[in-house]
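Please review this pair:
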Amino acid sequence: VDQFGIVVGLNNASLTGVSFTAGGTFVAGDLTNFKLWSSTSTVFNGATLIQTVNATSIGNGGTVTFNFNPLSCNIGSVFFWVTADVQLSATVGNTVIAPSLNNSDFTFTAGTVSGGVPVGGTQTISLLPPSITLNNNSQINAGIINIGTTDNIVSQFDVAVLTQNTSLTALSFT
């Protein structure tokens, strides 16, 4: 949903909270969680989960508050990400926006906060395309099909569908 960095100068600092008002068109029940992650690297892979906030009752305009034990922010840069977990029943097309963050949105045990974080990009809830795997595509043994009979097996296969339901709308042989 958002990513931002904090540059610590002069003395180490301890962050104990981040809060923001969620924007977009999402409604309570679209999301299950908001999560705050951090790393000293600009790469999300390998970031440490700081806190998870239950988001089932949070909708557009709701406040998301992360309060946690002091997180040491040593002199240099610390990078943060806010992620959201989306319900299977979420409304497709609804959006989630992390607003710009001001000094008052951060809680440090000591020090002076300056600067700000711009608005995060709009994230649109969409359907994950189905993952379809054909299995057991074994050849039917040669045999005899009698005149005037029905339901003669000429091919067999299994379809494994993951991530999202789908419908088979056509099948052709060449």
The mean pLDDT is 87. DSSP finds no helices and twelve strands in the chain. The radius of gyration is 25 Å. The first strand starts at residue 2 and ends at 8.
